[in-house]
Amino acid sequence: MPLTRTRTRTRSDSPIPTLGDLLAFARATAADPLALAQLAINPEERTWVRLEGPMGSEAWLIGWPPESETGWHDHGGSSGAFVTASGELSELSLGLPIPTDGWRSLELAEGVDRRRALPAGRGRSFGPHHVHQVINPSEQQHAVSVHCYYPPLPKVRRYARTGDVLRLALVEMPEEW
């Protein structure tokens, strides 16, 4: 008998989305012109619209002016996925899981940095201990992306990075977005 994959369920017996579910939603939304039309583009600042994600997840449609970026951050213990809908994004990330709580400064070992180019149609998923920075590297072209998180973001930790040292700089709560 073949093995079947079942979804984990919460206490209320609602299914929990897998990383594949989050990525599939981001891909489908990134390819949907009606969904993308919800985003007002600002040539000077990042813009965003919150969307309803699958199975209780939260999603965001984000506009990226040329040379804009997020800075180093994590997603407060949430897993996620994102897909570039138009333009191109770059992701700098750490190739190892970072604990979400209990530290203020970490010295990173050599070789943990990762870089990904994410042109339109490409995306990725990540687990709850992911630290990264997302950048629109273009000097002229706006980019748009779709991001999806589960559980919905409880907070975002922002980091300052100097060389191989990563320091906690700020913790943002949902009411601040």
What does this structure look like?
The protein is mainly beta. It has one domain (19-172): Jelly Rolls. Helix content is 9%, strand content 40%. The chain has helices at 19-30, 33-36, and strands at 47-52, 58-64, 72-73, 79-86, 88-94, 105-107, 113-119, 123-126, 132-135, 143-150, 156-162, 165-172. The chain has a five-stranded antiparallel β-sheet with strand order 1-2-10-4-8, covered by helices on one side. A four-stranded antiparallel β-sheet has the order 3-11-12-6, with no helix packed on it. A hairpin with a 2-residue loop joins strand 11 and strand 12 (165-172). The longest helix has 12 residues, at 19-30. It is globular, with a radius of gyration of 17 Å. The termini are far apart.
Write the layout of secondary structure elements.
Blueprint: H1 19-30, H2 33-36, E1 47-52, E2 58-64, E3 72-73, E4 79-86, E5 88-94, E6 105-107, E7 113-119, E8 123-126, E9 132-135, E10 143-150, E11 156-162, E12 165-172
Antiparallel strand pairs: 1-2, 2-10, 3-11, 4-8, 4-10, 5-7, 5-9, 6-12, 11-12
Summed up, what is this model?
The chain has helices at 19-30, 33-36, and strands spanning 47-52, 58-64, 72-73, 79-86, 88-94, 105-107, 113-119, 123-126, 132-135, 143-150, 156-162, 165-172. With 177 residues, it is mainly beta.
Q: In the CATH hierarchy, what is the superfamily?
A: Jelly Rolls
Strand order of the largest sheet: 1-2-10-4-8
Residues in helix, %: under 10%
- Number of helices in the DSSP assignment: 2
Please state the CA-atom Rg, rounded to the nearest Å: 17 Å
Strand content: 35-45%
Number of strands: 12
Mean pLDDT, as a whole number? Answer: 92
- Please identify the top-level CATH class: Mainly Beta
In CATH terms, what is the architecture?
Answer: Sandwich
Poorly predicted tracts of residues: 1-7
